[in-house]
Design a protein that fits this description.
By secondary structure, this protein is an alpha+beta fold. It contains five helices and 15 strands.
Length: 271
């Protein structure tokens, strides 16, 4: 049985998610449905892209990820299928899948143009139900990606997640996401710490310097202490014990940060 996930900005108050699930299950009653989240802020493509990046590798090979954060619905923006990392990604061509593609590198992108797979009539405002859901269902029933449309070598991409080195030991980075706990997720990764914390990292945010590194939250000595840790998505995060680091720092997503990275000098015992 194929797993089909849904990620949207639809919330849970309205019928939108249920309508997509209904279309999928009507076409493939054996499909296994999984909700990533439906609480992406409205029209926030970058938040959708980050959440998809953080979770897709947790799913089995062959999973079909159907993502709909689609402020351009009804316009000339394309519908696409991406084969990448042994999985499929179905949704609008607006940057929503660009972080996954940046990480994986190699992928195949198909424009979705074959209307025989659509639910008719197609609403100008609900392509999640009328295009993306039936396409995902058809993939789960064995249709090949090339049946939906031709290959393309281009897609809309968000800015790269890779931070820029501006000088020796200095990196210009960004806060790429703030989670519901107020943890500030940066685009610095574990490689910036080196093996076994071989580097000392200082991150400057809004005039504040964060130098403490912790393995887990309760390791912080006092509440409100700002510290860094390597988060489960593979990025360095800034947090505060039992408090919102974003509130303390007055930080927002997209905030520029500066990281200063120096090798740790390990003392050797005399003989």
């Amino acid at each position: 049985m194929t797993v089909i996930t849904l990620l949207t900005d639809f919330g849970s108050r309205d019928y939108f998610v249920a309508a997509m699930k209904g279309v999928i299950l009507a076409a493939n009653p054996d499909a296994r449905m999984g909700d990533i989240t439906h609480e992406i802020p409205p029209q926030d493509i970058q938040a959708g892209a980050f959440n998809l990046l953080a979770v897709y590798r947790s799913f089995p090979t062959g999973t079909i990820h159907t993502a709909v954060v689609d402020p351009g619905v009804g316009s000339e923006r394309r519908a696409i299928i991406i084969e990448c990392g042994g999985q499929f990604f179905v949704g609008p061509d607006n940057g929503l899948f660009s972080f996954v593609v940046q990480r994986e590198g190699k992928c195949r992108i198909h424009q979705v143009t074959n209307q025989k797979f659509f639910r008719h009539p197609v609403s100008n405002t609900f392509h999640g139900r009328d295009i993306f859901a039936p396409v995902a269902a058809a993939l789960s029933n064995g249709s090949a990606a090339h049946e939906f449309g031709s290959l393309t070598d281009a897609m809309v991409e968000l800015d790269s997640l890779t931070p820029r080195q501006t000088a020796e030991g200095r990196i210009a980075g960004t806060i790429i996401h703030i989670d519901r706990f107020g943890n500030c997720i940066t685009n610095l990764t574990g490689k910036h710490l080196g093996n076994e914390n071989a580097y000392a990292v200082q991150v400057n945010v809004n005039g504040r310097q964060i130098t403490s590194y912790r393995q887990f939250f309760s390791q912080a000595a006092v509440e409100d202490e700002l510290f860094m840790f390597l988060g489960s998505a593979g990025f360095i995060e800034i947090a505060a014990r039992n408090a919102s680091a974003a509130s303390i720092l007055k930080a927002t997503r997209g905030q520029s940060i500066v990281a200063i990275i120096r090798p740790v000098k390990h003392q050797t015992s005399a003989r």
